[in-house]
Specification:
About 55% of the residues lie in helices and about 0% in strands. The chain has 7 helices and no strands. It starts with a helix and ends in a 12-residue tail after the last helix.
Length: about 110
């Protein structure tokens, strides 16, 4: 599988991951290979509009999230974190407008829930 991937440049597809996860124990090197392929060669396009838990495997999705968190580069300082540098990105546009109208942050009324 590694030789094929090196030759073609294509990492493991959904079917390969399903087969390996269905037929191997949790600490299997083959599972680790699938996760490494997706961690290092993966693209956001592979995930857009998809549900990995339903379409591939809940175990694989969990392993992939752990691997991605281990490999990601953390911001060098506190101000680079999005909730610090861009706190308004977590608000609804109606809240931001009302705050700008009143000049008071947090003055927007909570939206009613159904």
């Amino acid at each position: 599988m590694i030789a094929r991937t090196n030759e073609t440049g294509c990492a493991a597809d959904d079917k390969a991951v399903k087969i390996i996860y269905a037929g191997t124990p949790p600490m299997s090197p083959a599972r680790r290979l699938m996760v490494d392929y997706w961690t290092w060669a993966g693209d956001v396009k592979w995930l857009q509009g998809r549900n990995l838990i339903e379409q591939i495997s809940a175990e694989f999705a969990g392993d992939l999230v752990l691997a991605l968190l281990e490999k990601r580069k953390k911001p060098g300082n506190r101000t680079e974190r999005p909730w610090v540098s861009q706190p308004k990105s977590y608000r609804l546009s109606s809240q931001i407008k009302e705050e700008s109208d009143t000049g008071v942050e947090g003055s927007a009324k909570p939206e009613a829930t159904a």
